[in-house]
Design a protein that fits this description.
This protein is mostly helical. It has one domain: Collagenase (Catalytic Domain) (3-Layer(aba) Sandwich). It contains 11 helices and 4 strands; from the N terminus they run ααβααβββααααααα. α2 runs parallel beside α3, α3 crosses α5 and α3 runs antiparallel to α11. About 5% of the residues have low confidence.
Length: about 290
């Protein structure tokens, strides 16, 4: 028995020695992890100063396949298009809410990530997605390469995306009166909104055809359309509607938006609209002077 035990001990020791030797041979001589600090460009430093440091908002413009839909043909923005696009975001969205809602408003309620994509995000039904808000934490913006800061229509379309997606984030923070809203135009909602004309949708009480997708999109479209329009432009929109039913329901929805902003965030919605319009004018006039 003693001899058997001795053999067992020798076998165990030999095994341990061989295992240790193999383990040591398998270990890499150098770390495979990159611990070096990335070199920041002037653009990176501008993003840090304008978004990350004051608002804790990270801006992704370099390609990361984990941040986009890989089933779509998407590509990163041109580097020289990044700052102009984010200057529009900063001036018209952040500065407007800060001026009316207070210096901490966007610091407290904001997406923590912006993902920028250079081209279109086309859908199978022929529409294009201009922006996405994911879980209130990330906003993806498309067609960054196409933004022309000297063109008011271009700037308005681009900022419409941000204003719309931010309304969703606000709604996730504090819900609007869905019950009352749902009673206004219940029969007008449709998943086939994209085959409808905006003018026809307005006759039914919707500011755009996309507003007809569902109640939450209706609220976000109503609020964002007013924010991107001057009082004269919005009045012209209402006057273009022939059916009094359409005008009446859009005005009722407008009143619910105004009440929501006041009761939920103590924000004067029309003051916010005026500030956004002033900042839109500033973006375009500054760009034209360059």
């Amino acid at each position: 028995m003693k001899i058997v035990n001795l053999y067992k001990r020798i076998a165990v020791i030999t095994g341990l020695v061989l295992f240790t030797a193999c383990a040591q041979e398998d270990q890499p001589t150098e770390s495979q992890l990159d611990y070096s600090t990335p070199i920041k460009t002037d653009l990176d430093r501008w993003i840090d100063t304008s978004f990350l440091d004051p608002y804790n908002i990270k801006v992704y413009y370099e390609w990361d396949q984990n941040l986009v839909d890989n089933s779509r043909y998407l590509f990163p923005p041109a580097v020289d298009k990044v700052q102009p696009a984010m200057e529009v975001v900063k001036k018209i969205w952040i500065d407007s809410y800060t001026a009316v809602g207070g210096t901490d408003f966007v610091k407290i309620i904001a997406p923590r990530e912006f993902v920028l994509v250079g081209g279109m995000n086309l859908n199978t039904n022929g529409t294009r997605t201009l922006g996405l808000a994911e879980g209130g934490q990330r906003v993806s913006l498309f067609q960054v390469n196409d933004l022309d800061k000297t063109d008011r229509a271009d700037v308005t379309e681009f900022i419409h995306t941000i204003q719309h997606e931010y309304v969703h984030i606000l709604n996730q923070t504090k819900p609007f009166d869905i019950k009352t809203w749902s009673k206004l135009t219940p029969s007008g909602y449709t998943s086939s909104w994209y085959v409808e004309d905006d003018a026809d949708s307005r006759e039914l009480g919707f500011v755009t055809s996309y507003a007809r997708l569902n109640v939450t999109e209706d609220f976000a479209e109503t609020a964002s359309m007013i924010l991107i329009s001057s009082p004269e432009e919005y009045q012209a929109l209402l006057e273009s509607i022939e059916d009094p039913f359409g005008v009446e329901n859009i005005k009722k929805k407008e009143a619910l938006v105004v009440r929501y902003y006041k009761e939920a965030f103590n924000i004067n919605f029309y003051a916010l609209r005026d500030e956004a319009q002033k900042n839109t004018d500033a973006v375009i006039s500054t760009q034209k002077k360059k």
